[in-house]
Specification:
Blueprint lengths: L1 H14 L11 E7 L8 E10 L2 E10 L5 E4 L4 E3 L7 E3 L8 E4 L2 E6 L4 E4 L6
Antiparallel strand pairs: 1-2, 2-3, 3-4, 3-5, 6-7, 7-8, 8-9
Length: 123
C-alpha cells in the first residue's frame, strides 16, 4: 500500500515537472563456475542495476543440480560494467574456490557445504 502510494506521488511529481521519474529495472546474469574439480558446477545468479559507474549488485544466489542453494541478499557493491560476477578465488588455499562479495570474503566450508563469512580481508 505504502509502496503504491509512493509510486503514485513520484509519477504525479513527474507529470507536474517537479521530478524526473525513470524506473530502474533490475538486471541479472547467470554463469556456471566450479568450486572444486570433484564437485558439480554451481550456477551463480547475480542481480542488480547497471549504472554508468558499473553494475550495482544487490543479490547473489548460488545453486547446483544436487539441491544446493544459498542466497546472499542486501548486498551493496559495484562490479565493472563488463564483469558482473563476484570474485572467485581460493583465498585460504584449501583447494576450494571462495567468494569475495564487496568488502567481505566467504570461504567454502566443505563440511557444511556452504559459504561462510570470514574475517579475511580482500587484498
Amino acid at each position: 500500500m505504502m509502496k503504491t502510494l509512493l509510486v503514485i506521488l513520484l509519477c504525479l511529481a513527474m507529470l507536474l515537472g517537479v521530478v524526473a521519474c525513470v524506473p530502474r529495472v533490475p538486471e541479472h546474469a547467470t554463469e556456471l563456475f566450479y568450486i572444486h574439480p570433484d564437485m558439480p558446477p554451481f550456477s551463480f545468479l547475480v542481480q542488480g542495476f547497471l549504472e554508468e559507474d558499473g553494475f550495482h549488485v544487490f543479490s547473489l544466489s548460488v545453486s547446483n543440480d544436487e539441491g544446493y542453494y544459498q542466497l546472499f541478499e542486501e548486498l551493496n557493491f559495484i562490479r565493472p560494467r563488463d564483469d558482473w560476477f563476484p570474485v572467485l578465488e581460493d583465498f585460504n588455499q584449501d583447494g576450494y574456490m571462495d567468494l569475495q562479495l564487496g568488502d567481505f570474503i566467504y570461504l567454502w566450508n566443505s563440511e557444511q557445504h556452504e559459504f561462510l563469512r570470514s574475517e579475511l580481508l580482500p587484498s
